[in-house]
C-alpha cells in the first residue's frame, strides 16, 4: 500500500501549482469560499482541510487525489527553528517579545485572569495606505478563556 503523502510535500505541491498557474492566495481563498489567512495556513499544512475543500483546491490547482488526501490529514503543529529566522516571521516574534507583557497585562486588566485562545481564533491581514508608506494591519481575534478551578 502506498503511504499517504506528507502535509509538507502536499504544501510544496500546492504552492508550486499556485505559482505556476499565476494564482494569488486571495484568488484561491475566494474560489474556495474560505477565509484568506486560514486558507493559506491550511494549504501550507497547518490545518486539516475538509474533504470537499481539499478536492476543490486540488481541482483548481490541477493536483491529484494524493494531495487532497494529504491536505485532509491532521497536522503536527510544531515550531520550526528555520521558519523563526525568516525576517517577516522574526518580526512577529520581536513584536510579541516587546509588546507581549503589555498585551498580557491589558488582557488581564480588561477580562480578568485568563488567556486569548489560539484555537477558537481568527486572524486577518489588511493593507492600510499611509503617506509615510503603506501599513500592514494584522488582527488577532481570539476567544477569551478564563482560568477556572
- Envelope shape: globular
Helical element count?
7
Secondary-structure element sequence?
HHHHHHHEE
Contiguous runs where pLDDT drops below 50 for at least 5 residues = none
How far from one another are the termini? 48 Å
For the largest beta sheet, what order do the strands appear in spatially? 1-2
Give the name of the CATH superfamily of the largest domain. Answer: lambda repressor-like DNA-binding domains
Helix share bin:
40-55%
- Radius of gyration (CA) equals 18 Å
**Content of β-strand:** 15-25%
> Can you summarize the main beta sheet?
2 strands, antiparallel
What name is given to the CATH topology of the largest domain?
434 Repressor (Amino-terminal Domain)
Explain this structure to me?
- With 149 residues, the chain is of the alpha+beta class.
- It has 2 domains: 7-72, 434 Repressor (Amino-terminal Domain), CATH 1.10.260; 81-146, Cyanate Lyase, Chain: A, domain 2, CATH 3.30.1160.
- The chain has 7 helices and 2 strands; from the N terminus they run H-H-H-H-H-H-H-E-E.
- It has helices at 7-20, 25-32, 36-43, 51-61, 65-72, 81-84, 87-111, and strands at 114-128, 135-146.
- A two-stranded antiparallel sheet has the order 1-2.
- Strand 1 and strand 2 (135-146) form a beta hairpin.
- Helix 1 crosses helix 5 (65-72) and helix 4 (51-61) runs antiparallel to helix 5 (65-72).
- The longest helix has 25 residues, at 87-111.
- The chain is globular, with a radius of gyration of 18 Å.
- The mean pLDDT is 95.
Amino acid at each position: 500500500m502506498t503511504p499517504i503523502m506528507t502535509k509538507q510535500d502536499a504544501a510544496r505541491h500546492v504552492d508550486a501549482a499556485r505559482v505556476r498557474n499565476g494564482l494569488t492566495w486571495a484568488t484561491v481563498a475566494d474560489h474556495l469560499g474560505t477565509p484568506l489567512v486560514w486558507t493559506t495556513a491550511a494549504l501550507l499544512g497547518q490545518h486539516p482541510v475538509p474533504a470537499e475543500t481539499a478536492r476543490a483546491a486540488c481541482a483548481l490547482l490541477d493536483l491529484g487525489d494524493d494531495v487532497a488526501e494529504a491536505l485532509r490529514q491532521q497536522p503536527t503543529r510544531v515550531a520550526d527553528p528555520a521558519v523563526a529566522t525568516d525576517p517577516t516571521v522574526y518580526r512577529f516574534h520581536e513584536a510579541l517579545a516587546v509588546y507581549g507583557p503589555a498585551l498580557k497585562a491589558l488582557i488581564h486588566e480588561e477580562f480578568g485572569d485568563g488567556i486569548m485562545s489560539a484555537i477558537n481564533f481568527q486572524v486577518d491581514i489588511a493593507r492600510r495606505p499611509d503617506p509615510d508608506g503603506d501599513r500592514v494591519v494584522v488582527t488577532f481575534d481570539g476567544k477569551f478563556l478564563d482560568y477556572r478551578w
